[in-house]
From TrEMBL, chain A:
HAMAP family documented for this protein: NDH1_NuoA (MF_01394)
UniProt gene name: nuoA
Keyword Translocase tagged: yes
Quaternary context: NDH-1 is composed of 14 different subunits. Subunits NuoA, H, J, K, L, M, N constitute the membrane sector of the complex.
Bilayer-spanning residue ranges: 6-29, 60-83, 89-111
Protein name: NADH-quinone oxidoreductase subunit A
EC number: 7.1.1.-
InterPro entries: NAD(P)H_OxRDtase_bac/plastid, NADH_UbQ/plastoQ_OxRdtase_su3, NDAH_ubi_oxred_su3_sf
TrEMBL record, chain B:
HAMAP family per the UniProt record, alphabetical: NDH1_NuoK
Gene: nuoK
GO molecular function, one term: NADH dehydrogenase (quinone) (non-electrogenic) activity
GO biological process: ATP synthesis coupled electron transport
InterPro entries xref list: NADH_UbQ_OxRdtase_chain4L/K, NUOK/Mnh_C1-like
Lineage: Bacteria, Bacillati, Candidatus Dormiibacterota, Candidatus Dormibacteria, Candidatus Aeolococcales
Catalyses which reaction(s): a quinone + NADH + 5 H(+)(in) = a quinol + NAD(+) + 4 H(+)(out)
E.C. designation(s): 7.1.1.-
This protein's name: NADH-quinone oxidoreductase subunit K
Keyword Membrane: yes
Transmembrane regions: 6-26, 33-52, 64-83
Topology in the lipid bilayer: Multi-pass membrane protein
Task of the protein: NDH-1 shuttles electrons from NADH, via FMN and iron-sulfur (Fe-S) centers, to quinones in the respiratory chain. The immediate electron acceptor for the enzyme in this species is believed to be ubiquinone. Couples the redox reaction to proton translocation (for every two electrons transferred, four hydrogen ions are translocated across the cytoplasmic membrane), and thus conserves the redox energy in a proton gradient.
GO cellular component: NADH dehydrogenase complex; plasma membrane
Subcellular location: Cell membrane; Membrane
TrEMBL record, chain C:
GO BP term, pick one: ATP synthesis coupled electron transport
GO MF annotation list: NADH dehydrogenase (quinone) (non-electrogenic) activity; NADH dehydrogenase (ubiquinone) activity; quinone binding
Compartment(s) where it occurs, according to its Swiss-Prot or TrEMBL record: Cell membrane; Endomembrane system; Membrane
This protein's GO CC annotations: endomembrane system; plasma membrane
Reaction(s) the record says it catalyses: a quinone + NADH + 5 H(+)(in) = a quinol + NAD(+) + 4 H(+)(out)
InterPro entries in the record: NADH-Q_OxRdtase_suN/2, ND/Mrp_TM
Species in which this protein is naturally found: Candidatus Amunia macphersoniae
Residues in NADH:quinone oxidoreductase/Mrp antiporter transmembrane domain copies: 137-432
Protein name: NADH-quinone oxidoreductase subunit N
Pfam family, one: Proton_antipo_M
Keywords, comma-separated and alphabetical: Cell membrane, Membrane, NAD, Quinone, Translocase, Transmembrane, Transmembrane helix, Transport, Ubiquinone
HAMAP family: NDH1_NuoN_1 (MF_00445)
Subunit note: NDH-1 is composed of 14 different subunits. Subunits NuoA, H, J, K, L, M, N constitute the membrane sector of the complex.
Lineage: Bacteria, Bacillati, Candidatus Dormiibacterota, Candidatus Dormibacteria, Candidatus Aeolococcales
């Protein structure tokens, strides 16, 4: 059973060996000319303006939270889709009720102004 | 390799992830990280549900996992809203500093 | 084809019985209507939202009464996911009455605190819907969803005072520990599902019975983890640490609500799952040890810790932990008498505890809750009726005749002795004796004349609805203690009506 994983283990070992080998070769044979430009996070042009660990507007959180909840609710469409033919019209109506409940949530969020970006 | 042969390893993996999450809840201090640890616990449970469902050839496990995913999302939304609110009323984001209610 | 000709197509497939969920559907409808109404209601008119929510609760109560007569033969609905029986309906009735009482004291309290937002009423109804679903849950999946529905609503309600750090702290603690407990609950459910192959309680019970004489260790681990998750919701020691903090930090009207209804609903699920689904002797012998220990720990920890408190809200929090321990006796003991004893206990606890918290809610002034011992001194001389009602609630919680609490304790302890669990009953009686100290201390404080140089506390005037709630709960405490058979007959009928086999 465990031997089934042997190729993965070999693959891992080859990966590690290759990475370490290339690094070692580069540090032994390559020239070393450090400069300030090379120490920048983005070597290829964009000069960072400030630290990335600054505070973000709380609007990002609100939008992200609303996205998560409406996005994940749609997961229920998947199991429903597999049996909707057997449920006939009743199944369609049931899903309609579910979507309507979500829609009411959306109306609430909208009317409360949570979607406004100020 | 069949699903049933894998099964003990899946269960062990889930138990391991669950323990990591539980330990994280107990020792981490940042509420957002604590929250992520709770999510880890819930997702470990999802692995158990889905692998049992596969093992027993029943759909209930998968349906249960769907429910857990959705409820976890709802909990995250409320949790993040609360965390931002705690931050707004001027508290540090360290749960050891939330001690006004201890006597 | 006429319009009516389409209707048979819309009829639900067999196995779905919408009438079985009528009270919950009404309440959930009220939740949605309130959310929409809140959008169009002017801030000054929000008192009407309380009226609408009370109407929804009354409608659900009417449906519950109708279902009570309809459910003479218990059955499961929604393919076994939900139990339609008098046991669940009895719990529904307690939850709905408690919710209505809380809604009556709410608007005044919220107005004084500047917290009068319409979402409050919607969330209360949402939480109550979850609790009722939990009381009737016939499958692990419904138990999980119901617990989360009530918990998420309560997390928000605990933090309803958005500018008060203590309220936010309470909500955060409740949320993080609640999520943690949900993890254990789910892991337990996953293991039970895996080892029995089912999520429906009746099928799980059948699978355990058919399993023969062996006990699977993973199944036992699952049962233990499920118990941890539920023990958190009933705030049984050692899973109680959140309780005093959350009760103190949350707005008092929310504390009133959740201290009673959450416990009632979670106990319903606990009795249904443990006493009736895992009642198989081989399994019972194992989980009994855990519940036995937790029951004694709750009685001891709750009562001893309450002695050291100086805030009435915290005292009632710890007293609630201890009361949970007494009700757990009814779960450990498997006899029918223990089950209806627990049901009676839950009803008496609900009435007295709502009353006690309602006193704090009604008396709270603009700035603070006045729940410290110092502020209670001499209450009887300035508010004689309120103090008398409070004294009655404390007597009931302490288990004195002629109040409901006396018979509640009597039934539960008698059931324990009847099932040859004498040590359990002795622990209960012993810790009750300890509890007398702190209940009496509060009572004596109210009847102590304050020193002339002491600061005078600014208690609010009791409004009509607030006074009405106090009068109703006080009357309920007395009626249940004097005309015992009134509620007892219903509790016995509820115990008889529990669904055993799909």
């Amino acid at each position: 059973m465990l031997s089934d994983f042997a190729p993965i283990l070999v693959f891992l070992a080859v990966c590690v060996a290759f990475g370490a080998g290339v690094q070692a070769l580069a540090s032994w044979f390559g020239p070393r000319r450090p400069s300030a430009a090379k120490d920048l996070p983005y070597e290829c042009g964009i000069v960072p303006v400030e630290s990335a660990r600054r505070r973000f507007s709380v609007s990002f959180y609100v939008t992200a939270m609303l996205f998560i909840i409406f996005d994940v609710e749609s997961i229920f469409l998947l199991p429903w889709a597999t049996i909707v033919r057997q449920l006939k019209v009743f199944g369609v109506v049931e899903m309609g009720v579910f979507i309507a409940a979500l829609l009411i949530g959306l109306i609430y969020v909208w009317a409360k102004g949570a979607l406004r970006w100020d | 390799m069949t699903a049933s042969a894998n099964f003990p390893y899946l269960l062990a993996l889930a138990a391991f992830l669950f323990s990591v999450g539980a330990l994280g809840v107990l020792i981490r201090r940042n509420p957002i990280v604590v929250f992520m640890c709770i999510e880890l616990m819930l997702n470990a449970v999802n692995i158990v549900f889905v692998s049992y469902g596969r093992f027993l050839n029943s759909e209930e496990g998968q349906v249960f996992a769907f429910m857990v995913i959705v409820v976890a999302a709802a909990e995250v939304v409320v949790g993040l809203a609360l965390i931002t609110q705690v931050f707004r009323v001027g508290r540090e984001l360290d749960i050891d500093d939330l001690d006004e209610l201890n006597e | 084809m006429t319009v009516l000709g389409v209707l048979p197509v819309l009829a639900p497939p067999p196995g779905i019985d919408i009438l079985g969920l009528l009270p919950e559907v009404i309440l959930a409808g009220g939740f949605i209507v309130l959310m929409m109404l809140d959008l169009v209601t002017a801030p000054a008119q929000r008192g009407w939202l309380a009226v609408v929510s009370v109407v929804a609760v009354a409608g659900a109560f009417g449906a519950t009464v109708w279902c009570w007569f309809d459910a003479a033969t218990p059955r499961t609905v929604y393919f076994g996911a939900f139990a339609y029986d008098r046991f669940g309906l009895f719990i529904n009735a307690i939850i709905l009455v408690s919710t209505a009482l809380v809604l009556m004291i709410t608007p005044q309290y919220l107005n004084r605190r500047g917290l009068h937002y319409g979402e409050y009423y919607a969330l209360i109804l949402g939480a109550a819907t979850g609790m009722m679903l939990l009381a009737g849950a016939g499958s692990l999946m419904v138990i999980f969803l119901a617990i989360e529905l009530l918990s998420i609503a309560l997390y928000i309600l605990s933090g309803f005072n958005r500018t008060e750090p203590r309220s936010q702290e309470a909500a955060m603690k409740y949320l993080l520990l609640g999520g943690f407990a949900s993890g254990f609950l789910l892991f337990g459910m996953a293991l039970i599902y895996g080892e029995t192959g089912h999520t429906q309680l009746t099928l799980i019970a059948a699978a355990i019975t058919n399993g023969g004489g062996t006990v699977d260790p993973l199944l036992m681990a699952g049962i233990a983890l499920l118990f941890v998750g539920l023990a958190f919701k009933i705030s049984a020691a050692p899973f109680h640490t959140w309780t005093p903090d959350v009760y103190q930090g949350a707005p008092t009207s929310v504390t009133t609500f959740m201290s009673v209804t959450t416990k009632v609903a979670a106990f319903a699920a606990l009795i249904r799952v443990f006493s009736y689904t895992f009642g198989e002797p081989l399994i019972y012998d194992r989980w009994k040890i855990i519940v036995y220990f937790v029951a004694i720990a709750s009685m001891v920890v709750g009562n001893v810790a309450a002695l050291r408190q100086t805030s009435l809200k915290r005292v009632l929090g710890y007293s609630g932990i201890a009361q949970g321990g007494y009700i757990l006796i009814g779960v450990v003991v498997l006899t029918p008498a223990a089950t209806w004893g627990s049901l009676y206990y839950l009803a008496s606890y609900a009435v007295a505890n709502i009353g006690a918290f309602a006193v704090i809610t009604v008396m709270a002034n603009r700035g603070e809750d006045l729940d410290s011992y110092a502020s209670l001194r001499g209450l009887a001389f300035r508010r004689p009726y309120v103090a008398a009602a409070m004294g009655l609630f404390l007597l009931s919680l302490g288990g004195f005749p002629p109040t409901a609490g006396f018979f509640a304790k009597f039934f539960v302890f008698a059931a324990a002795i009847g099932a040859h669990e004498l040590p359990l009953a002795l622990w209960g009686i012993g810790t009750s004796a300890v509890s007398v100290f702190y209940y009496l201390r509060v009572g004596l404080l109210m009847y102590t004349r304050p020193q002339p140089d002491e600061p005078s506390y600014n208690w609010s005037r009791t409004s009509l609805s607030g006074g009405g709630v106090l009068a109703l709960t006080a009357a309920g405490t007395l009626v249940m203690g004097i005309f015992v058979t009134l509620v007892l007959n219903i509790a016995v009928s509820a115990q008889n009506g529990i669904v055993l086999h799909g």
